[in-house]
Amino acid sequence: MPTTAAKPRWEPGTLTPYAFVAPAAILMATGLLYPVFMAFYLSFFDWEIGRDLGDANTVGFSHFLRMVQDPQVWEVLWVTIRFGFWVITLEMVLGISLALLLEKPIRGASIFRTIFILPLMVSPVVVGLIWRYLFDARAGWINYYLNAWFGMEPLVWLGDPELAFFAIVFTDIWQWTPFIFIIIIAGLQALSSEVIEASEIDGANWWQQIFLVKLPMIKSIIIIALLMRLIDVFRGLEVMLIMTGGGPGRSTELLSLHIYKRAFETQQLGYASAIAVLLILVVFGLSLLILKMSNPMKTKSDV
Questions:
Q1: C-alpha to C-alpha distance for 45 and 299, rounded to whole angstroms
Q2: What is the pLDDT of residue 301?
Q3: Residue 224, C-beta contacts closer than 8 angstroms, at least 6 positions apart
Q4: How many CA atoms lie within 13 A of 170 on its CB side?
Q5: pLDDT tens digits for 220-231?
Q6: What is residue 204's DSSP assignment?
Q7: Can you give the residue range of the structural domain that contains 184?
Q8: 160 within a domain of the structure (yes/no)
Q9: Smallest Cα–Cα separation from 45: which of 272, 281, 282, 278?
């Protein structure tokens, strides 16, 4: 006679771990899902600040149709993607390189690490003000030293579209490269010394250890750092708002800044909510694509 599989017995305390996690999970789900739901809900109304939502006119999907046909939306989306490509690429390269250089205990390493993480401690508003004055065409230190050292004429950094774009890219790299550095160096220091020693015995040189041993072993950490920076790039607002205000033209206007202007400068909250839904979909799609291609959580050799 075929034997039936024994049913797992219910043991007291099985749900105890879930009970401890549940409050935090509920709080995080509420903080995440409620704003997303409200953004989607408000996108169906023609609503302004100070006006009762119950009195707002329902417009259906007209905001989404308008968004698809709005060249400004696609222009700032392209600026955001272009900005994200440059800052994420350069920050990942610089952050990983610095972590590899300073992972071993060398003289002065602690001082360098402290200096590298200082930009993370500065408020984005302060960062925007600092670099706005540094890039100032008349009184900025950057033009002063370029003239003193290289004899260059003053450049209108924040008044030229390409120079302004370079300025916000440089500022973001200065502020957020330490974030990548901290995550990567923590992963490198957690690697098993036995694996590194085994690679040395097998004759691997420094470059081979980096590209064939260390980086593959912290692949999941690198992907997580990449995803976190991707999300941060698409929600970046304060630095660009203070440095350039999105100008000149829309050369430095990211999608999040465009949403802010639509919502609070032109009072188009319903339309801004529709663009916010687009922002959520873009970030979700890119994150899903990265996870699908890298599959970091299933790489057993990772730290």
A1: 45
A2: 46
A3: 183, 296
A4: 15
A5: 899 989 999 998
A6: -
A7: 70-298
A8: yes
A9: 272
Residue 2 lies in a domain: no
- Report whether 252 contacts 141 (CB < 8 A): no
Q: What is the 3-state secondary structure (H, E, C) of 234-274?
A: HHCCHHHHHHCCCCCCCCCCCHHHHHHHHHHHCCCHHHHHH
**Is the separation of the CB atoms in 109 and 185 below 8 Å?**
no
**What pTM value is reported for the model?**
0.84
Q: Are 259 and 282 in contact (CB under 8 A)?
A: no
For 21-63, write each residue's pLDDT tens digit. Answer: 888 888 888 888 888 888 888 888 888 777 777 777 888 889 8
Q: How many domains does the chain have?
A: 1
Considering only CA atoms, give the Rg of the chain. 25
What's the CA gap between 222 and 88, in Å, rounded? Answer: 12
Q: Which amino acid is at 193?
A: S
Q: Residue 264 has which token pair?
A: 């609070």
Q: Token pair for residue 247?
A: 């100008």
